[in-house]
Design a protein that fits this description.
Helix 1 crosses helix 4. The protein is globular and about 55 Å long. A hairpin with a 5-residue loop joins strand 2 and strand 3. It is about 60% helix and about 15% strand. By secondary structure, the protein is an alpha+beta fold.
């Protein structure tokens, strides 16, 4: 069963911010880590990732710099800014509330105390 692409698209920015909260990464590293952590459910292509990173950069949520990677290649690394950390915290709260509400509906709803 494949995922609805709109579900993935709407949450990918938040997931990238989460990865960068933990450590600075370069693009291919982010693609691989998202795939690994999601049991190969979230499979991004470079053509999807880099426009998202550019948007995050334009919004001031990430910065980039060049650094030599473990392979010896010079790569563009991305790092989370203060604005990115604040946005991640907000988006994580929104996701928690939304996913909790969806799960309640899917499992029959919460027990409501009678008044």
């Amino acid at each position: 069963m494949g995922l609805d692409k709109t579900l993935v698209t709407r949450s990918t920015g938040m997931l990238l911010l989460k990865l960068l909260q933990e450590q600075d990464m370069y693009g291919y590293q982010m693609i691989e880590e998202l795939s690994r952590r999601s049991d190969q459910t979230l499979l991004l292509k470079a053509g999807t990732l880099y426009p998202l990173l550019h948007d995050l950069w334009r919004q001031g949520m990430v910065v980039s710099y060049e650094k030599t990677a473990e392979t010896g290649r010079v790569r563009k690394f991305y790092s989370l800014t203060k604005e990115g950390r604040e946005t991640l915290a907000e988006k994580a709260q929104e996701w928690s509330a939304f996913s909790g509400a969806v799960n309640k509906v899917l499992t029959g709803g919460a027990n409501l105390a009678t008044v």
